[in-house]
Amino acid sequence: MTALVGLALLGWVLSSLSELHRTLAEISAPLANAVLIALIVVLVAILSLGLRFLWVAARAGRSAITATDVAKDPAAAAGQSVEAAQQQIELISDEIARQALAGELHALSDDLTARRYTIVVFGTGSAGKTSVINALLGDGVGATDPIVGTTQDGIEHLYTIDGFDEGRLRLVDTPGLSEMGAGGRMREQRARELATQADLLLFVVDQDLRDIEFKPLASLARLGKRSMLVFNKRDLYLPEDLSAVAERLRARVAEFIDPQDVVVCAADPATVTVRDTTGGERSEKPEIDTGALAERIAAILRENGRTLLANKVLLQARRISERARDIIHEMRVKQAQGVVTRFQWTTAAVMFVNPVPGLGALAAAAINYQMVMEIAKVFGAPVSLEAAKRMAGELGQVMLKMGVVNVTTNILGKALKASIVGYVAGGAIEAVAGAYLTKLSGEAFTDHFAHDQDWGENGMQGAIEKRFQLEGQHEFVAAFIKEAADRVFRRREDRP
Fold first, then answer.
1. For 223-236, what is each residue's pLDDT tens digit?
2. Residue 126 sits in a domain of what CATH number?
């Protein structure tokens, strides 16, 4: 339809041009030709602009479709998150930290590529986690004694499901919750870390949910973890009691777990005594009953496995990226502290050797705005020389307004008078004060750039007050002054 309309318009335009040319030719042939050429040039220009507009619009449309498709494709989003984390990791200068995070990210990326699914079994120490794993695997792979703390760390097993051939499955046993002592708390923390790495979480209980079980289950499920609640040891309950407890469990977790994902099983039924027809007794172990659990796991993975895996990779990659940012932040703060230390002693030296009163203050100001530029560069936020001068000037005005300069001078004056050094070189007050104020300024600017150039709720003055609290700071300032004075005088003595 668009093509037909376009051809019709083209025919009309050509017909109109021909008619116009004939009319003008009757007056002047050169005039008719000139007008025709000019109109053709204009039409070609309009057509070119129109085609360019359509091409740009088409590209924008394709880009929008691609972005939409990515947003709807968890695997693509997970891949992008892995790439973003890799970019963050490459900025880490510490080789050990960089390699450690890169290794974690590589393993995570491999899970996504090879479709390796992780099923983490989580719960209290005696709920039967290892028994559930044994039953699913069909082999006694772990100790199942009813002793809290049997599983010391995450133990991984390969797992296969009939009818599910996509990717590799891993069953991970975890330490139990609510174990006693410091060791128990450490193992519980490890269990929670392993649970956050799951594509599918099996939370095993053997009774109605207690608070120590409900809270971690709810927090993990609300993080986006697909969770199943496995009610184990059904063989210990009468049928009517079993049904009542199962319904209560479904009701308790209905907000974040599908009722179908609350499954009842008997992973390691207790041995019972059976009386035979002759009156004799024998021990008999009932059959394991985990069929419904295995079927539900298979159904979830068939229906949502790829999405669950992508969501796990997305979450873990973001966490790795956050850890990388924290390391980079700490690295930059440390570098900035080194910059501040260098400039504070530079200020002290310049002001100490300066022979002209008042000229030292100008030198200190120049040093301060150079320090601002270097701190900004450390945090990847370069500023112009004019901006650095303005910021340093504003900070100096705030410090004068707050009386920081006067208070510092008074405190260090008393400290110097109390020392032998003070009697020898009372003129060092200006140098030491300059060093301390440079340190104070540098720490304030480090905070400023470390928080994305935000002074905080109370602005620049609040940042200075945070770094310089007049109450209870005399001993700290005096100690700093003594160190600064020792450095200044030691440098002077070392000069030839």
1. 778 899 999 988 88
2. 3.40.50.300
